[in-house]
Amino acid sequence: MVKMYELPPLPYAYNTLEPYISEEQLQIHHDKHHQAYVDGANGILKLFDESRDKGVDFDLKAKAKELSFNMGGHQLHNLFWQNLGPASENGGKPTGVVAEKIEETFGSFERFKKEFSQTAITTEGSGWAVLVFCKSTGRLFILQYEKHNVNLVPRWVPLLVLDVWEHAYYLDYKNVRPDYVEAFWNIVNWDAVNERLESWIASTY
Ligand code: MN
């Protein structure tokens, strides 16, 4: 049997991100929404296997798009959970190499924070604000991903992602996305972002 995708457990308890993200909000986001992308991807893998076994056709275009949507959702949520942590140990200003890169690229942390927040707040409908590192230039960029379309650019690596789908914040913030975006800064796990950046700098990719 070929391996399927699995929903990893959250790296912390459901109430860890309170009061910025409630236990109820985090549990539904992880257990229901993230799970749905894993199930969606696995359903397509199953269809591939069964169709090939039986020698029947399937809609390649539609399934390629659906797989990209579900896998984007799965991988982005994995990264999002890793990017967060309890406010008692996280938030504030970054240190280390990510702090240097932010200073180099944006001039200051305040400027970066403003640009990233604006990117998140102005994302139309459902999507993500994403900080990426460019391996070729050593620069940072802020992108918007529509839905779960990861806009994969070779040598551009996502470091920090913020989910701005309504399912990420509606129970806690209703329609007030800017308050959710402001709350996010209290629970960013900069150490995890730093580790990710350092490993990408050291990699040969
Ligand atoms: Mn989400």
Walk me through the structure.
The structure is a single chain. By secondary structure, the protein is mainly alpha-helical. The protein has two domains: 23-82, Fe,Mn superoxide dismutase (SOD) domain (Helix Hairpins), CATH 1.10.287.990; 96-202, Iron/manganese superoxide dismutase, C-terminal domain (minor pseudopilin epsh fold, 3-Layer(bab) Sandwich), CATH 3.55.40.20. 51% of the residues lie in helices and 11% in strands. It is built from seven helices and three strands, in the order H-H-H-H-E-E-E-H-H-H. It has helices at 23-54, 60-83, 96-106, 109-121, 170-173, 177-184, 190-202, and strands at 127-134, 140-146, 156-163. A three-stranded antiparallel beta sheet has the order 2-1-3. Strand 1 (127-134) and strand 2 (140-146) form a beta hairpin. Helix 1 (23-54) packs antiparallel against helix 2 and helix 3 packs across helix 7 (190-202). The mean pLDDT is 96.
Keywords:
205 residues, mainly alpha, Helix Hairpins, minor pseudopilin epsh fold, three-stranded antiparallel β-sheet, 7 helices, 3 strands, 51% helix, globular, binds manganese (II) ion
Provide the fold topology:
Elements lengths: L22 H32 L5 H24 L12 H11 L2 H13 L5 E8 L5 E7 L9 E8 L6 H4 L3 H8 L5 H13 L3
Antiparallel strand pairs: 1-2, 1-3
Bound molecules: manganese (II) ion.
Manganese (II) ion binds next to helix 1.
**Terminus-to-terminus distance:** 30 Å
Helical stretch count? 7
CATH-level-4 superfamily name of the largest domain: Iron/manganese superoxide dismutase, C-terminal domain
CATH topology name of the largest domain:
minor pseudopilin epsh fold
Q: What proportion of the residues form beta strands (DSSP E)?
A: 5-15%
Roughly how many Å is the radius of gyration?
18 Å
What's the β-strand tally?
3
